[in-house]
Automatic annotation (TrEMBL):
The entry's keywords: Plasmid
Pfam families: DDAH_eukar (PF19420)
Keyword presence, Ribosomal protein: no
Protein name: Amidinotransferase
Organism: Sinorhizobium fredii (strain NBRC 101917 / NGR234)
Transmembrane segments: none
Length: 310
């Protein structure tokens, strides 16, 4: 097991977050996102979501994580609080920009975020895949993929938001091996994003194994994770529904932390918590309003895997 205070390429020390000023639940994405909650027309969730992201950013900063907090004052980007879907960053100075399925989500891409990354970090190239959108080829970033930066594997649930052609292009450009699998919830409905059922940290991985429909593929994925030296923590369907799989390992002042929601932490049992705490400190962020939109803590965090400029 790697020491929890040692640097890990899997756990970035900085993140990008977006604080929404007019938060709503995106009705355009409800068709294939079973994690979204009912939302009454006219219900004002904006102030609650604003406060939740503000507190989450401050909590992460208090643990030594560098948070780049951007504001979204617009009214036509309801999912902007989830920036991990439209871009990702990678060691060696690489940035990817992704093709999004919902038109409303395409408006989330912002040049000021990319320019900040170029100014604060060493960025050698930006690869923009958004030109695939007119052809109906989508790959929604680190929602569609859960990336193992150590073993160089891109785990991806097959869905309309994860096109195999786009995934192959990304994997070729960024040096990942794609591992695609099918996953359904307890009602047989396909899972829309990989990061709601799977989290890969430095020394462990949490995954909703019961959702993987092919037993042979399930065994293969478990074997691959264990071969990389990780402890596999199986999550139940109920725990996945409470966002227990939607977590992100980060590097803070005192070592590695696992950022997850208060909802997710409450869903974990004592044995799972003990396994996580062997290598990371649990940091719970209370974002119940944000979770009504169908995503949780991991979705709100775009990790920065870039080298800071002096």
């Amino acid at each position: 097991m790697r020491g929890r205070t040692s640097y890990s390429i899997q756990a970035p020390a900085a993140v990008v977050m977006v604080r929404p000023h007019h938060f709503t639940v995106n009705t355009e994405t409800a068709a294939d996102n079973r994690f979204q909650a009912e939302w009454a027309a006219g219900e004002d969730l904006g102030p609650l979501a604003f406060a939740e992201i503000s507190r989450a950013a401050e909590t992460l900063r208090s643990h030594g994580v560098d948070v780049h907090l951007f504001e979204d004052t617009g009214t036509d980007t309801p999912d902007s609080v989830f920036p991990n879907n439209w871009f990702s960053t990678h060691a060696g100075g690489h940035v990817a920009i992704y093709p999004m399925k919902a038109e409303s989500r395409r408006r989330e891409r912002r040049s000021d975020v990319v320019e900040m990354l170029k100014a604060r970090y060493r960025v050698q190239e930006v690869i923009d895949y958004s030109g695939l959108e007119p052809d109906g080829l989508f790959l929604e970033g680190t929602g569609a993929m859960v990336l193992d930066h150590i073993d160089r594997v891109a785990y991806a649930v097959r869905s309309d938001r994860t096109d195999p052609i786009a995934l192959e292009r990304f994997s070729t450009h960024f040096g990942f091996e794609p591992m695609v699998f099918d996953a359904h919830d307890g009602d047989g409905v396909p899972v829309y994003h990989t990061n709601v059922l799977m989290c890969v940290a430095t020394d462990f991985a949490m995954i909703g194994l019961d959702m993987l429909t092919d037993p042979a593929r399930r065994r293969e994925i478990v074997a691959r994770l264990e071969h990389s030296g990780r402890r596999v923590i199986a999550l139940s369907n109920e725990q996945i529904a409470r966002f227990a799989g939607n977590a992100l390992e980060l590097h803070g002042r005192q070592g590695r932390i696992l950022a997850l929601s208060a909802t997710a932490l409450a869903a974990l049992d004592g044995e799972q918590i003990a396994a996580i705490e062997e290598s990371a400190t649990l940091v719970a962020l209370d974002i119940p309003t944000i979770e009504r939109a169908g995503g949780s803590v991991r979705c709100t965090l775009a990790g920065v895997h870039l080298t800071p400029r002096p």
